[in-house]
Amino acid sequence: MMNDNPSSSPAETNVKPLMNEEEESVDPTLFKQIVGSLRYLCNSRPDIAYAVGIISRFMSEPRVSHLLAAKRVIRYFKGTLQYDILFPKCLNENSMELISYSNADWCGDRKDRKCTSGYLFKFLNAPISWCAKTQPVVALSTCESDYIAGCMAACQAVWLEDILKEMEIEVSRPIALFIDNKSAISLARNPVLRGRSKHIEAKFHFLREQVNKGALQIVDCSTELQLADIFTKALKVDKFIKLRSLIGMKEVET
C-alpha cells in the first residue's frame, strides 16, 4: 500500500461494516495482523480509536468489506504520520485540572442495536485516556445511552484520580464531565425521574452516586463541542478535522 492515496478520515461517513455471509472471505490471519497493529497504534492515536474498534468486531470471519475498511485506516494513517500527542510542561500547580467528555451513538450497531460509548479525559489540555466501546446492554433511549456512557466515564474518572494521587498529583475537584444530553444530565442529578430510569440496571447509577458525593460535576455542552463524538461515530471530514485538533492531536516535526 506504499503507493496508495492517503485518506482524509479513518472511516467512511454513514457506512458501517456488517457481516454478510454471502460476501467473499479474506485471510483471517492477515486481517488479525492488520487489526492488531492498528490497535497498538490506538495507544497514541485516539483519532483512529472508533474506526479500529469497528473493524475489530469482525476478526473471526473477516470479509472483503472489512479488509477495505481496515485499509482505509491505514491510508488515513499514512497521510497523517506527522500527527501526535504533545504533553506540555506544567509551570502552574493551580492548573492541575482533569476534565472529561462522554457520549454515545444510540442504536449504532445495525445488527444488535447496541450503542457505542466513547469518553475522553484531558489533563493539562492533553489527552491521557480515551475509549470507544460497545455498551453491554441495549439502550431504550438516547437518555439511557448517554447515561450509561457517563457511568463508564465516571468509573474511569475515579481510577485516574487514584492513579494521579499515587503520583502525588492533586487534581481539582469536582472533575468536570461534559455531556450533550440534557435528559441524561437531569437523570444524573435528580433521582426522581423514575419513568426514564426504572429499567436501567443499578450498576449504571454509579454516575449519580459520584455526582451526589461531589466527585463529579456534570456540565452541559453543545453537540458541536462534544469531543467524545470522535469515538462514537464516523464523522464528516470537516468536523473530524476540527475534533481531532480539539482532542489534542498536534502536527509535529520529526
How do the helices and strands line up, and which of them pair or pack?
Layout: H1 28-41, H2 49-55, H3 64-79, E1 83-85, E2 98-105, E3 116-123, E4 126-134, H4 142-166, E5 175-179, H5 182-189, H6 194-197, H7 206-213, E6 216-220, H8 237-246, E7 249-251
Parallel strand pairs: 2-5, 5-6
Antiparallel strand pairs: 1-7, 2-3, 3-4
Note down, in words, how this protein is organized.
The protein is an alpha/beta fold and 254 residues long. The protein folds into 2 domains: 1-81, no CATH class; 85-251, Ribonuclease H-like superfamily/Ribonuclease H (Nucleotidyltransferase, domain 5), CATH 3.30.420.10. The protein has 8 helices and 7 strands. The chain has helices at residues 28-41, 49-55, 64-79, 142-166, 182-189, 194-197, 206-213, 237-246, and strands spanning 83-85, 98-105, 116-123, 126-134, 175-179, 216-220, 249-251. The protein has a 5-stranded mixed sheet. The protein has a two-stranded antiparallel ribbon with strand order 1-7. Strand 3 (116-123) and strand 4 form a beta hairpin. Helix 4 (142-166) crosses helix 7. The longest helix is centred in the middle third of the chain and has 25 residues, at 142-166. It is globular, with a radius of gyration of 19 Å. It starts with 27 loop residues before the first helix and ends with a strand. The model has no long low-confidence stretch (mean pLDDT 88).
Name of the CATH superfamily of the largest domain: Ribonuclease H-like superfamily/Ribonuclease H
Span between N and C termini?
22 Å
Q: Strand order, main sheet: write it out.
A: 4-3-2-5-6
CATH fold name of the largest domain, please?
A: Nucleotidyltransferase, domain 5
β-sheet strand percentage: 15-25%
Which class of secondary structure composition applies to the elements? alpha/beta
Estimate the helix proportion, in percent.
25-40%
Mean pLDDT: 88
